[in-house]
Write a structure and sequence with these properties.
Radius of gyration: 15 Å
Structural class: mainly alpha
CATH class: Mainly Alpha
Helix content: 55-70%
Number of helices: 9
Number of strands: 0
Strand content: under 5%
Number of domains: 1
Shape: globular
Order of helices and strands: HHHHHHHHH
Length: 149
């Protein structure tokens, strides 16, 4: 019988998968999913596991099926399916947010925590106009998601 992965297992997996990646501010990428995981909005291990893994399918070499095979719960894997942009959503952020709004509560909570972290311009030494525009987009999505909880 496959043991269900713990939060510590998920942190270790996310760290390995994101190894060497940098965020838009040039910091080690793993810090982002860790900050998302620690958002007080997320209170259960399932929510925290989904949070720390939320960018792995989209940005790393792992699939939802592989996570399922590793023993991650159906709820976590389904939440990650909502949190992973589909190819047709690459240029349609509103469609991506709309799909999350129709998804599991865990996915909406993780995305809200993700957006709060992404919208924090204090991570940037010198925010650009592009950073400010992205923050405005995130704030609009935050308002929509907050209304869904």
């Amino acid at each position: 019988m496959l043991l269900k992965p713990t939060l510590e297992d998920a942190v270790a997996l996310a760290s390995a998968l994101h190894k060497g990646q940098k965020d838009k501010a040039g910091a080690s990428y793993i810090l982002h999913p860790l900050r998302v995981m620690l958002n007080p909005l997320l209170t259960t291990d399932e929510e925290r596991i989904a949070a720390v893994l939320h960018d792995t399918v989209e940005d790393c070499d792992i699939t939802l099926e592989q996570l399922r095979e590793r023993g991650y719960s159906a709820e976590v894997v389904e939440a990650l399916s909502f949190l992973t942009k589909l190819p047709e959503e690459e240029d349609d952020y509103d469609a991506f947010i709309e799909r999350i709004l129709g998804g599991l509560l865990i996915a909406r909570k993780v995305k809200l925590a993700d957006l709060h972290d992404n919208a924090d311009l204090s991570r940037f030494a010198h925010p650009t106009e592009k950073d400010v525009k992205r923050q405005e987009k995130y704030k609009r999505a935050i308002a929509r998601l907050e209304g869904s909880l």
